[in-house]
Design goal:
Helix content: 10-25%
Number of helices: 2
Number of strands: 9
Order of helices and strands: EHEEEEEHEEE
Low-confidence stretches: none
């Protein structure tokens, strides 16, 4: 058994699609549009694993924008980069490109080397070994 995909509601599908393509080398499907439901989505396939579905629909609700407040539901998506060096490099790349760093890079008490950044719409992304 494996996770097939994770779905993310988005304000701007194009911005999010470009982000995941640029930083995670995701390959993107053609856009799917359901005009009746005013729903559209892309499926992004990561090089070595599951997919991410980016979705937009006129009727979804936006959570408050404070990244330090936690809510029930999906907390973060963790990306295994393979080494401490790659975690450090990606963290530096994200911060140099203006993305918010919430934590790290650091060793956690439960043995993970990680940093946490926000994607363009404020979703938490954990970068780990």
């Amino acid at each position: 058994m494996k996770i097939e995909h994770v779905a993310i509601w988005c304000n701007c599908l194009e911005t999010m699609k470009l982000f995941y393509q640029r930083y995670f080398d995701a390959k993107c499907s053609d856009i799917y549009i359901n005009p009746e439901k005013k729903f559209s989505s892309y499926f992004l396939t990561l090089p070595d694993g599951p997919r991410i579905e980016l979705m937009n629909m006129d009727s979804f609700q936006v959570l408050p924008a404070d990244p330090y407040i936690q809510f029930t539901g999906l907390a973060h998506i963790a990306f295994s980069l393979g080494s401490e060096e790659k975690v450090n490099q990606m963290t530096e790349r994200f911060t140099a490109d203006g993305f918010k760093l919430l934590d790290g890079p650091r060793w956690t008490g439960d043995g993970y080397y990680e940093s946490v950044i926000l994607d363009p719409e404020g979703n938490r992304l954990e970068l780990t070994v």
